[in-house]
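Why predict the complex rather than its parts? Because the way molecules touch one another can change local conformation, and only a joint prediction can capture that. The input here totals 278 residues.
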Amino acid sequence: MTVVSTHKDVQALTLTFVAEFAASVERVWQVWQDPRQLERWWGPPTWPATFEQHDFAVGGQSRYYMTGPEGEKAHGWWAITAIDAPNRLEFDDGFSDEDGEPVDTSDPIHLVVTIEAVDSRARMTTVATFTSAERMEQLLAMGMQEGMREAMGQIDALLADASH
Amino acid sequence: MVVGELSEADADRIFHALADATRRDIIARVIRQEQSVSALARHYPMSLAAVQKHVAVLERAALVTKERHGREQLVAADVTALRRATRLLDAYEQLWRHRARGIEQILAEDQEGN
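Output of the joint prediction:
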């Protein structure tokens, strides 16, 4: 796997993440389509996901939860808005209450995933759009300690360089 | 988490402040060394007043501080606030790196199975 590029737009609140995999487009599509594969990579570090429902069709809904290190559960939902297999998937991703029912249908993250063949590899581009900075913080406050530490290390290094 | 202490209004001010290339450049310069507004203004093809406005936006977002030294206003970076702002999107990027590694692992198992 190679991370080709990432682009953060702080004004539009978007992250564009591009990675390439040594696999076919169809194979990478499967890790989104098959809930048993999806739940192995969707959760943040130390918060594995369990997909209880995954209706992979336009208008389809997913219900999942992520289990934290203390056994606490964070529930989420997807609503799939566009599918063009095996190249394009669009969906909204939001938080749910303890019963798995969506609580923030007006404030989801919108994700657009495109998978294309580039030199016999599969290039996956994910564009995530947040509706508000608050929404982003809610997500990041949960189970992101590892990512935080990595990011902090990078910023510390940057600031250390700048002070020399 | 420190991120949780950042209110929505604070975050919006920070995002707005960082959305402009000149303001990002001002931050990069004052991280290295605190500078007067007039020294900063020499780097940009704009009026002193325009640079003062940019500095004011950064000050409202608590990304820089302004301190009077004699006749000069010295602009310095507020490192704590800068860390909070960059952490938001950086942490989300880290989540996607983590996810891509997870996908990679699943794909690697295909090879082992063959």
